[in-house]
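Need residues for this backbone.
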């Protein structure tokens, strides 16, 4: 006879066993919350037990999943399942073949080689699986922000999404919180100006503000943004990195063949919205100016990494040089 688990599909939130695999804490917590919400929608009196790996000892699972006189629904969450003892894993493997009615077991596992036998056994038994990978790439975080706005039923421009990622950085909880705040406070489409009003001044955002103002030839505003960045604790190396990205983008686009933003985006490895922004910024730039600006960035990078006595001066010099280079065609 087929087990209850085998009859369930991987899309069933209340499948007997759910695996949440990965190291992104926000996604792991959401996987748990999704199951708990579904269970409480089915039974408002659902009992939730949230355990660490060291709390699930041999025999504990049997106790938690034993039939109840009140036939209550229960969700049992086990965190860091990769750290479970061999005896407990053996007990879990046995449970997978004959899961208890009205019980949903949620195993949070970091992935990787440790505890892989548990993952393999659960997958073989037909467990529902939720991927919760660490988002290390900016493109992944950008996709996450877009998804958050869609989930809220709100429209946000590509520039706004990128600006939010630039401003907040790599913390998914903060990104999700920022999306929630914007959707609660702002009516209509959320654009870059709105994000700027809320989050300009954040450390990771200000480095890109410095770069944008410099490559646009706005030296005074770039220097003001630079001083603000340094005063709020932005690491100088982040600023040189942003300057380098800004100048290189102009160099790439100025040497590219003409075409639609989508075609250029594929050719240059940039999102289409960035193509439009860089096109606006590159007015006044010449190939010689790009070379001058790149040398200025390289010198600043050396200065902030120990090659000079005054990192702040090295950055100011680079910003002024880049801003002047941006206006070189206009002076010709």
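Answer:
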């Amino acid at each position: 006879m087929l087990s209850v688990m085998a009859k369930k599909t991987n899309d069933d939130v209340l499948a007997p066993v759910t695996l949440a695999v990965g190291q992104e804490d926000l996604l792991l917590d959401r996987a748990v919350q999704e199951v708990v919400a579904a269970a409480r929608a089915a039974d408002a009196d659902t009992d939730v037990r949230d355990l660490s790996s060291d709390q699930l000892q041999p025999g504990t699972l049997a106790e938690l999943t034993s039939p109840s006189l009140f036939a209550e629904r229960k969700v049992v969450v086990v965190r860091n399942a990769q750290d479970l003892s061999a005896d407990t894993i053996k007990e879990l493997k046995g449970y997978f073949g004959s899961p208890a009615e009205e019980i949903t077991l949620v195993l949070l596992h970091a992935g990787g080689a440790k505890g892989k036998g548990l993952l393999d056994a659960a997958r073989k038994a037909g467990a529902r699986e939720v991927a919760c990978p660490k988002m290390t790439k900016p493109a992944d975080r950008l996709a996450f922000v877009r998804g958050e706005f869609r989930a809220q039923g709100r429209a946000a421009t590509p520039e706004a999404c990128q600006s939010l990622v630039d401003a907040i950085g790599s913390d998914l909880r903060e990104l999700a919180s920022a999306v929630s705040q914007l959707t609660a406070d702002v009516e209509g489409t959320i654009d870059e100006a709105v994000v700027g009003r809320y989050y300009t001044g954040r450390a990771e955002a200000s480095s890109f503000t410095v770069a944008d103002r410099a490559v646009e030839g706005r030296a005074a505003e770039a220097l003001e943004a630079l001083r603000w960045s340094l005063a709020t604790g932005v690491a100088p190396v982040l600023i040189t990195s942003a300057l380098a990205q800004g100048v290189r983008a102009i160099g790439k686009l100025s040497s590219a063949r003409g075409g639609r933003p989508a075609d250029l985006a594929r050719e240059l490895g940039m999102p289409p919205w960035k193509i439009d922004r860089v096109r606006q910024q590159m007015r006044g730039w010449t190939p010689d100016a790009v070379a001058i600006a790149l040398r200025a960035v390289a010198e600043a990078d050396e200065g902030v990494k120990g090659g000079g006595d005054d990192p702040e001066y090295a950055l100011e010099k680079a910003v002024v040089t880049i801003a002047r280079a941006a206006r070189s065609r206009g002076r010709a």
